[in-house]
Amino acid sequence: MNAISFSLILTGVLLNAAAQLLLKAGTNVVGHFEFHASNILPIGLKLAFQPYIMGGMACYVVSLVIWIMALSRVPVSVAYPMLSIGYVVNAFVAWQWFGEALAAQKLLGIGFIVIGVILVTRS
């Protein structure tokens, strides 16, 4: 895999991870909600115009374009497992920004993910 292909994959993965984090930040602002017939429109509008959620959706759109470019250069059997890097990024950023727990079992799982990504990229 050349540097451009790797950069496209990494950028796509990081944008996808950023999208998830922005969506979480947006739902934190909106608060807990459930959709019912009576609140679909008010909650839907609140979510649609929440800046973090709009940013997350924008990240998804850009990541999709970049991901398609990456898939045109790299076999899907190599590219797709690299999405796992997003789990690692999200776990550490969620720990920092949202105070989510990073227990030993989660860290062990992250270690397995990192080893798996290394093995896939070297194949």
TrEMBL record:
Coiled coil is among the record's keywords: no
The cross-references to Gene3D superfamilies, in alphabetical order and at most eight, read: 1.10.3730.20
One GO molecular function term?
A: transmembrane transporter activity
> Where, subcellularly, is it found?
Cell membrane
Instruction: Enumerate the transmembrane spans.
Output: 52-71, 78-98, 104-121
- Keywords, in A-Z order: Cell membrane, Membrane, Transferase, Transmembrane, Transmembrane helix
Q: Which GO terms describe its cellular component?
A: plasma membrane
InterPro entries in UniProt: EmrE-like, Small_drug/metabolite_transptr, Small_multidrug_res
According to Swiss-Prot or TrEMBL, what is its membrane topology? Multi-pass membrane protein
Primary subcellular site in the record, as a coarse category:
membrane
PANTHER family in the record: 4-AMINO-4-DEOXY-L-ARABINOSE-PHOSPHOUNDECAPRENOL FLIPPASE SUBUNIT ARNF-RELATED, SMR FAMILY PROTON-DEPENDENT DRUG EFFLUX TRANSPORTER SUGE
Q: Which family does it belong to?
A: Belongs to the drug/metabolite transporter (DMT) superfamily. Small multidrug resistance (SMR) (TC 2.A.7.1) family.
Q: What is this protein called?
A: 4-amino-4-deoxy-L-arabinose transferase
